[in-house]
Specification:
heterodimer, A: alpha/beta, four-stranded antiparallel sheet, 10 strands, B: mainly alpha, ABC transporter involved in vitamin B12 uptake, BtuC, 2 domains, two-stranded antiparallel sheet, 3% strand, globular
């Protein structure tokens, strides 16, 4: 569903992504692992068109998207959940969800506010609360729910477990399983190997803007040397 | 003052506040979402007023004709706003903010001349509102019924805006985009459409504000800048992006102005205070006080740090010695080789070059954008003229002392200004410039009022155009050299550090505010020098030397040349002054021509002329390498 070939990207003059290739299919959860500054977030932003791709191809559902504006990419059914959540702090939970609203899609699960409140029960009790007065975990749920309002076929989750209490992380893992169950394609970036092992089918390791490993989660779990080299802090 | 007259002034103020609120609410809305300070917003108000005038003539002076005209004029102005957004601003959303500002200046020029072409230079007095031309007696005084209607319209529009912003998805999108427009885009919202719709709504409000004034004030060509200044004040006093704040501020300022007129002349402890003359100043005084006490306005919040796509400013490079020397030699040779006209034009250019370079110093490297830099230019000019004519000083002494006077004003104004940053700072500088202008304009007995000061000629040995040319070259050249030198001193580095990262600069022990204050005083004095040299070259001074138009001219010079280079403002000043002179001699509509030229440059070279040339040569070099 999502196919990336030889992707290069820059921040100003700094060359961040050096020819990254990866893929993710429908009904699959893929983890992009790497340390701080490895290029995970840039990867997500470049796929979404928020950072322009200097070179390379991004194909979504057979369609080249690397030159499209972010809103066009979102309308094709690619959802983006940013690392720093970027909740609209002045807007209530319901209004935040309204901003994400897109028409239903034939080939993707349709989400309503009620269905999302079933997935994230905490949000159901604070419909009118301004986004700025929510805890980090609640905001993380809201940012995912907001993206799901666009009825995406594939979601990019940038470090969904970052900075969350363990109990919320567990809840997050259950939610990601639910998304997979709905047939979505999920590409998540993570530093938390444990969390990734709980949710992902396959994994890539990125370091200095290059892919160092790509394979099943089981392979990565079996290879202690690999984890030591690229993921230990 | 009796109770009745207090109530009457209150009602007068509230009626005046209605239009002020409408135009400010539109400005605030547009700024919130697009982060564009739309200088053309006053022009839209002006178009609303002219449009309503013409439509009423076509549709007849009946109640139906009147109100249809008002609504149609507002909607038509909305479409003009859409046109501006689609044709100009949409192409430069990714350009630096200041460049967008330059584009809106250009639009001001174009609209002014379109209005001049369509409606002529005479003021047009509109009809009273049919069916509402009677007056209603309140507490023994007669109040026009139309004023009472205006008083009601303000809160009605406020309520409508509030409902629109809080009860519709469009409103949620607008508020979301005000905080983080990139994220709104990543959620599938087409920014271009949202921005266009916001421009439409904002422009309709400006147009409506203008159209509703047709029974109260004549349509005239000066409205664009005077209204935008008022709207800035209201927006900033109320808090940028806060519609309720804009309403509160509009009422506060409308009422304060009405009271100044109502109170008239008062004798306090033997001193005669003419309150009615304060009307021009009072709103700026309110703004200065509010900004010092509440830096983000009455109901405003600290501005969210916007995620900007623009790169940080590149390091400055020192102009090469060969460039400077060749330039100097050529300029020294001009009076020998060229005619009198060129000599006079170049003398003008020297003054404006120093003016532009001093503005560039404060807005570029020091990072403090000034919308009111003409204050120092004009105060320097007036100081020179008044020291000569009223102080009886010799011209040489007046020329040397004038910059000190301008600098002294900068000490006072700067103390307030450095407490703010960003748009708020820019608006406060505008406020101080307007205060200076109002005082100069109204103090007939001392400054000559609207006539200005005459007979400000240099001493005999400098009276020749050639001699004065060399004097202007020497003084302005020395001023520019000083400013450039300072930029590469530790003081200059500290200013740039403060611009790029205020927190880190303070963390390494730089007293940023003190440095910025000093920078303010330095550029104020040198802009004053430019003004003094200019005054003696012309022989007279008028209040226009302090006007908003003079300030925007300076901004255009700097932005045209490019704010990121040292030589840019120099080129900008030269090209602007020369072009204005050339075009103004050929057509009455020189503003429109200038506006179109500026727009063309903005759309073709989003980094300014010199910045654009640099980028081109760099690309050429890279292509060769």
């Amino acid at each position: 569903m999502l196919l990336i070939k030889d992707l290069h990207a820059y921040y100003g003059r700094a060359h961040i992504l050096h020819g990254v290739s990866l893929e993710a299919s429908a009904g699959e959860v893929v983890a992009l692992l790497g340390r701080n500054g490895a290029g995970k977030s840039t990867m997500m932003k470049t796929i979404m068109g928020l950072v322009s791709a200097a070179k390379g191809e991004v194909t979504f559902d057979g369609r080249r998207i690397e030159r499209l504006q972010p809103y066009r990419i979102a309308r094709l059914g690619l959802g983006y959940v940013p690392e720093d959540r970027r909740i609209f702090t002045e807007l209530s939970v319901m209004e935040n969800l309204a901003v994400g609203l897109q028409p239903p899609r034939k080939d993707a699960p349709s989400w309503t506010e009620d269905k999302l409140f079933a997935l994230f029960p905490n949000l159901a009790n604070m419909r009118e609360r301004p986004g700025g007065r929510m805890s980090g975990g609640e905001q993380q749920m809201l940012t995912i729910a907001r993206t799901l309002m666009g009825n995406p076929r594939c979601v990019l989750l940038d470090e969904p477990s970052e900075g969350l209490a363990p109990i919320i992380v567990e809840q997050m893992a259950r939610s990601i399983h639910a998304l997979k169950g709905e047939g979505l394609c999920v590409l998540l970036s993570e530093q938390n190997l444990h969390f990734s092992q709980a949710v992902a089918d396959r994994a890539y390791i990125i370091e200095k803007g290059q892919i160092r490993f790509g394979g099943s989660m089981a392979e990565l779990t079996a290879d202690a040397a690999l984890r030591e080299q690229y993921l230990s802090v | 003052m009796t109770f009745a007259s207090i109530i009457i002034q209150l009602l007068n103020g509230l009626a005046a506040a209605a239009s002020l609120f409408l135009v400010s609410a539109g400005l605030s809305l547009i700024f919130g979402v697009t982060r564009i300070v739309n200088f053309a917003h006053g022009s839209l108000y002006m178009l609303g007023l002219y449009g309503a005038y013409s439509l009423i003539q076509a549709l007849g002076r009946t109640p139906v004709g009147f109100w249809t005209s008002v609504v149609l004029a507002a909607l038509a102005v909305g479409l003009v706003g859409v046109l501006i957004e689609v044709l100009v601003l949409r192409r430069i959303y990714r350009a630096p903010e200041l460049f967008q500002l330059l584009a809106t200046f250009a639009v001001v020029l174009v609209i002014k001349d379109i209005a001049l072409f369509t409606w002529g230079a005479e003021d047009l007095v509109g009809p009273r509102a049919p069916g509402l031309s009677m007056a209603i007696e309140i507490l023994g005084r007669r109040i026009p019924a139309y004023d009472l209607l205006l008083i009601a319209i303000g809160p009605v529009v406020l309520l409508a805006m509030w409902l629109l912003l809080t009860r519709t998805r469009w409103g949620a999108l607008v508020r979301a985009a005000t905080q983080d427009r990139e994220m709104v885009g990543a959620l599938g919202v087409d920014q271009a459409k949202l921005f266009t719709s916001v421009f439409f709504v904002g422009s309709v409000l400006a147009g409506l504000g203008g159209a509703l004034q047709i029974p109260r004030e004549p349509a005239n060509l000066e409205l664009d800048l005077s209204v935008i200044a008022d709207a800035f004040v209201v927006t900033v006093v109320g808090g940028l992006g806060s519609i309720g704040g804009a309403f509160l501020a509009a009422v506060l300022i409308g009422v304060a102005k009405a009271f100044c007129i109502g109170v008239g002349t008062v004798n306090w402890f033997g001193a005669e205070i003419v309150f009615s003359k304060l009307t021009l100043v009072v709103e700026f005084l309110i703004m200065a006080i509010v900004l010092v006490v509440r830096p983000f306005g009455l109901l405003g919040k600290p501005q969210a740090a916007q995620r900007l796509a623009a790169d940080p400013a590149p390091p400055l490079t020192v102009p090469s010695w060969t460039f400077v020397l060749v330039g100097l030699v050529l300029l020294l040779a001009v009076p020998i080789a060229a005619d009198r006209y060129v000599t006079i034009l170049l003398t003008d250019i020297f003054c404006f070059a120093l003016f532009a370079i001093s503005l560039h110093f404060i807005m570029g490297p020091a990072g403090m954008v000034s919308f009111g830099h003409a204050a120092y230019f004009g105060l320097g000019a007036y100081a020179a003229g008044l020291l000569l004519k009223r102080g009886g000083l010799p011209m040489e002494a007046a020329l040397v002392l004038a910059p000190l006077v301008a600098g002294a004003f900068a000490v006072v104004y700067g103390w307030f200004c450095v407490r703010l940053s960003g748009v708020y700072l820019a608006m406060l500088t505008l406020a101080f410039a307007q205060i200076s202008w109002s005082i100069v304009f109204q103090w007939d007995s001392f400054t000559g009022g609207s006539n200005g000061v005459f007979g400000v000629w240099p001493s005999a040995w400098l009276a020749g155009k050639t001699a004065y040319y060399y004097l202007a070259l020497a003084f302005c050249g020395a001023g520019i050299a000083l400013l450039w030198r300072v930029l590469f001193s530790p003081f200059g580095f500290a200013l740039r550090a403060g611009r790029d990262s205020p927190l880190r600069a303070e963390a390494i022990g730089i007293d940023l505010r003190a440095y910025q204050w000093m920078a303010f005083v330095l550029v104020g004095a040198l802009a004053g020098l430019a003004g003094a040299v200019y005054a003696f070259s012309k022989g007279s001074i008028s209040p226009s030397a302090i006007s908003i138009a003079q300030s925007t001219d300076g901004l255009i010079m700097v932005l045209l040349g490019g704010v990121e280079t040292l030589t840019g403002p120099l080129a900008g000043a030269a090209i602007f002054t020369w072009l204005r002179d050339e075009v103004a001699r050929r057509t009455e509509f020189w503003r429109a021509v200038m506006g179109v030229v500026i727009l063309a440059i903005v759309l073709l070279f989003p980094q300014g002329l010199i910045g654009g040339l640099k980028a081109l040569t760099q690309r050429w070099r890279e292509a060769r390498a």
